[in-house]
């Protein structure tokens, strides 16, 4: 990890719990041994929020290059220059431009070599869509930002990681009804290839084992309960194996996540969002981290969303954000 550089933590939706858990994460910086981070957002909003929540956090408006030196005594904030006056729990597309500007600035600082990695706080997708944001979420937007001028965006892969389980949704933010048509052999193979490569290179797993889930009950029951398992997923697993990736499946998804089954693989490739996220959030809601694979930089995030229902009430837990910052630190150390 480069000395003197901070991790860029985006503010996320200012009406959600992101800013609040950022304050709490900073308060826990020593006990959690967090690497230094700076919030990319609005310094005046963060100052007001700390006061409103009676959190003893000094906010220091700063530049990327001086942030690390301040981290011990204050939460450094790199200001996005957008006025933010959000009410916790009351989302509004008025703040969307600032929310997106924070993501843009975080990536730019990494590309300029002035920050180490990006950790994002949650955004409410529908709020950004209302303001014209044309990307499903951070995962896809970060890939677009990662591409140089005229270059194609890299294929970003969402992985939810915890010590107990890592899961990858092959299709992500699409309606359930659209999943069968979106699942192609190529998509599964490309996803598996990226997961195997990044588990090896970034997570230090010498021979990553991938368990590939079926789509249908009982992985299709030999075609009687759906055709995709045999027609699309099984050939994708065979293609991955032919490339030297240790992949198995398609396995019936209902028996892939119990404790004994989990010991047989390093990551589960799941066919749709909830097939992946339900087991990990059931097992490790407070500890799991969302990490984007396939990008030229490190990006992590808490596993949860904006939690508007509890924003500003002082009950939001910062555990998953702390885990995201710690994982970013571990991945950055592995790169150094
Ligand atoms: N990485 C990101 O930017 C993500 C954004 N979202 C967005 O979040 C919005 C709300 O999504 P939901 O499905 O309601 O999920 P959510 O994770 O925001 O909330 C689900 C439940 O968990 C609770 N919860 C969440 N985080 C918590 C924390 N740190 N401490 C204590 N309780 C917590 C909430 O109070 C709520 O009852 C959506 O608009 C979605 O787009 C959802 C997931 C990830
Ligand atoms: N449910 C996970 C999620 O919404 C994360 O999306 P992203 O904003 O990290 O792409």
UniProtKB/TrEMBL annotation:
<protein>
    <recommendedName>
        <fullName>4-hydroxythreonine-4-phosphate dehydrogenase</fullName>
        <ecNumber>1.1.1.262</ecNumber>
    </recommendedName>
</protein>
<dbReference type="InterPro" id="IPR005255">
    <property type="entry name" value="PdxA_fam"/>
</dbReference>
<dbReference type="GO" id="GO:0051287">
    <property type="term" value="F:NAD binding"/>
</dbReference>
<keyword id="KW-0963">Cytoplasm</keyword>
<dbReference type="GO" id="GO:0005737">
    <property type="term" value="C:cytoplasm"/>
</dbReference>
<comment type="function">
    <text>Catalyzes the NAD(P)-dependent oxidation of 4-(phosphooxy)-L-threonine (HTP) into 2-amino-3-oxo-4-(phosphooxy)butyric acid which spontaneously decarboxylates to form 3-amino-2-oxopropyl phosphate (AHAP).</text>
</comment>
<feature type="binding site">
    <location>
        <position position="273"/>
    </location>
    <ligand>
        <name>a divalent metal cation</name>
    </ligand>
</feature>
<dbReference type="GO" id="GO:0000287">
    <property type="term" value="F:magnesium ion binding"/>
</dbReference>
<keyword id="KW-0560">Oxidoreductase</keyword>
<keyword id="KW-0664">Pyridoxine biosynthesis</keyword>
<keyword id="KW-0479">Metal-binding</keyword>
<comment type="subunit">
    <text>Homodimer.</text>
</comment>
<keyword id="KW-0521">NADP</keyword>
<keyword id="KW-0862">Zinc</keyword>
<dbReference type="InterPro" id="IPR037510">
    <property type="entry name" value="PdxA"/>
</dbReference>
<keyword id="KW-0170">Cobalt</keyword>
<comment type="pathway">
    <text>Cofactor biosynthesis; pyridoxine 5'-phosphate biosynthesis; pyridoxine 5'-phosphate from D-erythrose 4-phosphate: step 4/5.</text>
</comment>
<feature type="binding site">
    <location>
        <position position="218"/>
    </location>
    <ligand>
        <name>a divalent metal cation</name>
    </ligand>
</feature>
<keyword id="KW-0460">Magnesium</keyword>
<feature type="binding site">
    <location>
        <position position="281"/>
    </location>
    <ligand>
        <name>substrate</name>
    </ligand>
</feature>
<dbReference type="GO" id="GO:0050897">
    <property type="term" value="F:cobalt ion binding"/>
</dbReference>
<feature type="binding site">
    <location>
        <position position="139"/>
    </location>
    <ligand>
        <name>substrate</name>
    </ligand>
</feature>
<dbReference type="Pfam" id="PF04166">
    <property type="entry name" value="PdxA"/>
</dbReference>
<feature type="binding site">
    <location>
        <position position="299"/>
    </location>
    <ligand>
        <name>substrate</name>
    </ligand>
</feature>
<dbReference type="GO" id="GO:0008270">
    <property type="term" value="F:zinc ion binding"/>
</dbReference>
<dbReference type="GO" id="GO:0050570">
    <property type="term" value="F:4-hydroxythreonine-4-phosphate dehydrogenase activity"/>
</dbReference>
<keyword id="KW-0520">NAD</keyword>
<feature type="binding site">
    <location>
        <position position="173"/>
    </location>
    <ligand>
        <name>a divalent metal cation</name>
    </ligand>
</feature>
<dbReference type="GO" id="GO:0008615">
    <property type="term" value="P:pyridoxine biosynthetic process"/>
</dbReference>
<comment type="similarity">
    <text>Belongs to the PdxA family.</text>
</comment>
<dbReference type="GO" id="GO:0042823">
    <property type="term" value="P:pyridoxal phosphate biosynthetic process"/>
</dbReference>
<feature type="binding site">
    <location>
        <position position="138"/>
    </location>
    <ligand>
        <name>substrate</name>
    </ligand>
</feature>
<feature type="binding site">
    <location>
        <position position="290"/>
    </location>
    <ligand>
        <name>substrate</name>
    </ligand>
</feature>
